[in-house]
Every structure is written in C-alpha cells, then in structure tokens.
User: Which sequence fits this backbone?
C-alpha cells in the first residue's frame, strides 16, 4: 500500500496530475479522505475546494470507505434492450454487495453486463447475477 | 494443435479464459488473439481457420477430436465476408501486443510513408481521403489537422495530439476493440498526426470502465515507444464522467480539472490542451489514418457515398441475434444492418425500433429502415449517426420509459455548466413522471416540446443539445406509448 506522500512523489512534475493522483489514492486507500484531499491540495498548490470540486465531479471517486464488494451493473440502453431492468429487483435482496449503476461497459451485444473490479461478466440472467452477487 | 481464442473484453465476459484453460489442460497450444467481432459466437475458437462458437469448456474434447460442429472457415462466414474491413483488417487475425504480428500485416507502412512525404503531403492525403471525425460530429479530419498545422508557434512551445477514447455511448465498442485488439494501429495513427501538425506529445484519454483497453494501450505504448520517436504518448484514465467524451470537457479533465465543457470559440485546434494548439480526434478517426497513408487518400475515398467517404465500423447491439462489429462502406441501409446482417431480435419478437448514435441519438422505427448510413441522410431525417452504434429493441419496449431515461441520463451526466442541460434534464424527468402517471398528458407533452427546444438551442454541448433527439423521436414515432 502506497502512502499519499509516495503517490504525490511519483506524480511530481506531471502536467495535469490531479486525476492520476486521485486514481492512485483511491486504489491504495479505497476512497479519497479529507486528509488526502488536504495533502493533495498542498502538493499541487490548489485550494482544498478545487480538489473537492474535482473529487465530487467524477462518479468514480468516493469520499467514504465502502467495505462491501462493488458490482457495477450496466443500466444503459443496450442492456435495457436485453432485459437488465428485470434483474434490478434481485439486487435489492442482496445486502452483502453494493450494486452501482454504470452507463456502458462496451459489452452492448452480449448484455446484460456487469463488472467486479476489472473482471467483466456478460449474458447475465437471474441465476448468473445471483451467483455473481454471492461470490463477489 | 493450436487454438486461437480472443482475449478481448467481450470474449472474457463470455468465459474465454475458462475455455482457454481447458484447451491448455487438454494439451493444445493456445494463442490469445483479437476478436473477429462476431459477438454472439464468443467465446469463438479458431482452429486452423475453422471456427467454433460459442464454446464452453466441456466442448473442448469434442472440438479436439473433430466431432464438434463448426461454423466452417471463419473468413467465409457471411458476417465477415460481407464486410469491407480496412480499420479492422487485423481483427481476429493477430495478437494485440505482438510487434511481430503487427509488422507482418502491414503495420508501420503508413508511418514510413508519412515520414517520407512530410507534413503537407500527409495533410493533403487525409483531406483527399474525405475522412470525417468518427466520434460523431463528422468534421473533416484533414481540415482540423491543417488548422493545427497552420497555427504558428514559437520553437520552444508545444502542440498536442489528443485521442478521445472516452467511448461512453451505449451500443458502441469499436474504440474498445481497436485498443484491445490492435493498439499499435492507434499509436501509428497518432504518430502520423503528430508529424502532420508538428506535435511531439500525445495523450490517449481512456474511460475507466475499460480496464482491459487501458492495460493493453499502456503495454503497447511502452513497447512501441522507440518506433515512434520523437513522438511520445501517455495514457490517461477517465473517472466515470460521460460528458468527458465531449472534447473540451475531456481537455479540462486531462488538465486535472472538473470535466466541465468550455465555450467555443476558441477552438481546441487553436487553444486546446493547456491552452496550446491541439488535435482532438476519436480513436476510429486516428485508427483509419495508417491505412489511408499506406494505400492513398483516393483508395479510401473510393468507399462510401456522397460526402460520407470510406468505411464505418458499425456496432450492432442490444436485442439483436447477430451482434458485433460490422465495418462497411457508408451507404448501406439501416434495414440491411438490422435485419439481414443482425438477423432481427435475439428474443425472436418483432423489431419495434432502433436507436442509432448512442444515448443522444434518435429512435427510428422500421418504416424508416431504408435510410442509408450517411451523415447527411441521417441529418435530413432528424437523426444522427454519432459513433455508429445501433441498439435494437423488440416490441416489449416502453418508449415513454426510454424517453424518460434519456432525460434521466442527461441529468446524471450533465456537467452543470449550462442551465438548459442542468435544469432542463431534471425538469424533463419530473414532467415525464407526470405523463407516465397519466396527469395532464397533452399539456405536459407540449411542455416537453418547449423544454426540448430550449435544451437543443440553448445548451453548450451535445449532451443537453442532443438529448431532445431520443426524447422527441420517441414521442413522434410512438405516440401510443405516451397516452396519445
């Protein structure tokens, strides 16, 4: 696990470094803490408000820890056409995973599709999605 | 025996790794290659040119002993044989990260030619090809390059090539397939663009939802670095904001800011990344360039119709039997793509409509399926080609829900800079909720019409500006779903 200081040192001098830094911090800590935002702001000579503004703008960045496994389920048009909305009630029954909507994983011909970490899953039906939620 | 299996994200999502392991356990040599783009057959296994698919691990022994049923020679499959693959010439045939495979299949020919003929002749070639921006706007690529090339700069200053790989439209995956299947082609295209305009630094901005594309591009950038010197490429990763596919928002994101849209002018060609002259092109635009340089602008322009020259990698998706990537010259009709090539719906029910061009594209009913794939023909029908994704819907679709979703999507993804998009989309959701509940339907539909007009003409970028396309086309073609 890299510390904030390690991450800041690694990106020192890089043009437009804020997003790469935030990605690395979230990968390392799981979320972007208030402390991390303060350190990043200081290192990049930005205000804390500017860093907060960027963190809150992008759907990927979370400001609080999430301990449950996260399943990103595509809810965009092509997966809707292939029946993803019928799977949504299933999600609500599973509290051990956090299911987030994502708009397109580029698997639009083989949906409904989902992603857990970097692993992708297609042709989901009730059975496959349930299995995914149980082992994620 | 050698089994060639794709390691593209669609193949992986359909279980290709388990199939590859089963072949290895059975003693076969496994080679991981790019995808042919016949997604309904994934995982597709290619043994000596003969295809099997979709394959499950328990079918491996019957494939190896010759008793399994094949689809025949892959290149003769109608889905492949009917295409004109220029950009996707290597799809299914090469290993994505093999410099050897790339060079053996004409790789770097375009860059070699570009180095020999110089900047002015490169731009002339791209202009002669008629290549238009494949991201959706359809602006002539050569003219954009010429604008950046002609922008004066002090010798110590910097121009940039930015590749927009923030492919967020539903039903599009061609950029992903280029990056995961033929990354050196994109790198070659960027290096040629750099030569043409005098830029020695390039960025590829890839959406975070594409981890496999990110990994392949990073590896490819590293291994090809000595071949494209002095041009240098860096991969940057987005953070889940759809609006960053808009070029000025993408530039802000690359600069480490909120991905808010910039007002134009100034054009990015004059004041782009870090305020410097910048070419921003889509993956498919840059990926078409090596072929154009290697074969000549006229050879590319020989494909297509009217002012839509060359080929378009069409992505057939949604509720469709034969989904995948179909690269074809402009001019093919929508009906041929959906019914003849796509084979109709996967559910077997009648096609009710298609949405072309992603979440900001119009819904088109089957009685307009004679529409040719051509930028101008689509514009004349109040529709857009966009990034050429087609989502097929069967007759169970509720168009009022889809129109509401178009507004909801716009509300979720709006950058918030301009009022018509930020507020209009949220108001749109509220009004659709009333319409769906059957309250004051006539007057609420009039309100939606007014709202759409405000969004279309008052928004800064295509997110707010084009959301009216799906909304109004759904109401126009399917009034019965709106209580009319």
Assistant:
């Amino acid at each position: 696990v890299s510390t904030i200081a390690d991450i800041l040192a690694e990106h020192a001098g890089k043009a437009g470094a804020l997003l790469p830094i935030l990605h690395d911090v979230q990968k390392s800590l799981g979320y972007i803490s208030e402390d991390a935002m303060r350190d990043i702001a200081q290192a990049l000579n930005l205000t804390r408000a500017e860093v907060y503004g960027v963190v809150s703008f992008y759907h990927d960045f979370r400001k609080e820890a999430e301990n449950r496994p996260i399943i990103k389920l595509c809810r965009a048009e092509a997966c809707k056409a292939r029946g993803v909305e019928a799977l949504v009630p299933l999600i609500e029954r599973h509290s051990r995973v956090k299911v987030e909507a994502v708009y397109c994983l580029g698997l639009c011909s083989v949906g409904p599709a989902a992603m857990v970490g970097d692993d992708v899953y297609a042709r989901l039906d009730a059975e496959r999605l349930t299995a995914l939620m149980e082992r994620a | 025996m050698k089994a060639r299996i794709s390691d593209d994200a669609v193949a992986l999502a359909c279980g290709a790794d388990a199939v590859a392991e089963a072949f290895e356990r059975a003693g076969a040599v496994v080679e991981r290659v790019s995808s042919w783009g016949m997604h309904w057959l994934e995982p597709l296994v290619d043994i000596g040119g003969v295809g099997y698919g979709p394959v499950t691990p328990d079918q491996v022994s019957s494939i190896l002993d010759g008793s399994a049923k094949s689809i025949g020679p892959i290149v003769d499959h109608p889905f492949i044989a009917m295409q004109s693959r220029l950009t996707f010439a290597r799809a299914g045939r090469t290993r994505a990260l093999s410099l050897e495979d790339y060079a053996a299949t004409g790789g770097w020919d375009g860059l070699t030619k570009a180095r020999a003929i110089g900047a002015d002749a490169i731009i002339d070639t791209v202009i002669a090809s008629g290549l238009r921006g494949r991201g959706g706007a359809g602006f002539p690529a050569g003219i954009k390059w010429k604008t950046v090339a002609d922008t004066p700069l002090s010798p110590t200053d910097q121009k940039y090539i930015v590749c927009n790989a923030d492919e967020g439209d539903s039903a599009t995956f061609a950029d992903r397939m280029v990056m995961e299947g033929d990354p050196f082609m994109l790198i070659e295209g960027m290096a040629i663009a750099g030569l043409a305009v005098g830029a020695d630094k390039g960025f590829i901005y890839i959406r975070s939802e594409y981890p496999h594309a990110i990994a392949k591009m990073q590896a490819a950038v590293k291994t090809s670095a000595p071949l494209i010197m002095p041009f240098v490429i860096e991969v940057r990763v987005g953070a889940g904001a759809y609006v960053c596919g808009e070029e000025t928002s993408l530039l802000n994101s690359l600069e480490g800011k909120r991905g808010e849209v910039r007002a134009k002018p100034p054009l990015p060609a004059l004041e782009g990344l870090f305020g410097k002259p910048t070419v921003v092109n889509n993956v498919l635009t840059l990926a078409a360039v090596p072929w154009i340089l290697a074969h000549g602008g006229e050879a590319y322009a020989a494909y297509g119709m009217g002012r839509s020259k060359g080929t378009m990698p069409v992505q057939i998706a949604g509720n469709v039997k034969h989904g995948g990537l179909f690269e074809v010259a402009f001019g093919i009709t929508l009906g041929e793509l959906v019914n003849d090539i796509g084979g109709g719906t996967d559910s077997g029910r009648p096609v009710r409509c298609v949405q072309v061009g992603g979440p900001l594209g119009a819904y088109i009913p089957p009685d307009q399926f004679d529409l040719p794939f051509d930028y101008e023909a689509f514009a004349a029908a109040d529709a857009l080609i966009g990034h050429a994704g087609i989502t097929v819907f069967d007759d169970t679709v509720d168009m009022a829900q889809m129109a509401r979703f178009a507004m909801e999507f716009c509300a979720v993804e709006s950058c918030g800079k301009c009022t018509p998009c930020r507020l209009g989309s949220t108001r749109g959701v509220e009004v659709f909720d009333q319409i769906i509940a059957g309250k004051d339907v006539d007057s609420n539909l009039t309100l939606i019409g007014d709202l759409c007009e405000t969004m279309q003409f008052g928004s800064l970028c295509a997110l707010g500006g084009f959301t009216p396309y799906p909304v109004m086309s759904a109401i126009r073609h399917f009034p019965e779903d709106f209580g009319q």
Remarks:
- The mean pLDDT of chain B is 97.
- DSSP finds 21 helices and 16 strands in chain B.
- The first strand of chain B starts at residue 2 and ends at 6.
